[in-house]
Amino acid sequence: MAEIQDKGLDAFKDMGEGMPVVLADKKLKIGIIGTGWIAENHIRSYMKMPDVEVVAGADLIPGKAEAFFKRFGLEGVRCYPSHKELLDNEELDAVSVCTYNKTHAECAIYALKKGVHVMLEKPMCVTTEEAVEIMRAEKESGKILSIGFQPRLDPNMMQIKKVIDSGVLGDIYYIQTGGGRRAGIPTPFGTTFIEEKTAGIGAMGDIGCYSLDMVLNAIGYPKPLTITGYTSNFLGTSKDYWQYRPHPEYADVFGVEDFAAAFVRLEGGIILDFRIAWAMHMDTPGDTIFLGTKGGLRIPSTECWNGTLDKPMVLYQTIGGAMVETTIPILPSPIPLFDKKIRAFLNAINENGTAPIPSSQILYNQAIIDGIVKSAKLGHEIEVEIPEI
Question: Rounded to whole angstroms, what are the CA distances from 364 to 224, 258, 267?
Answer without folding.
Answer: 7, 21, 11
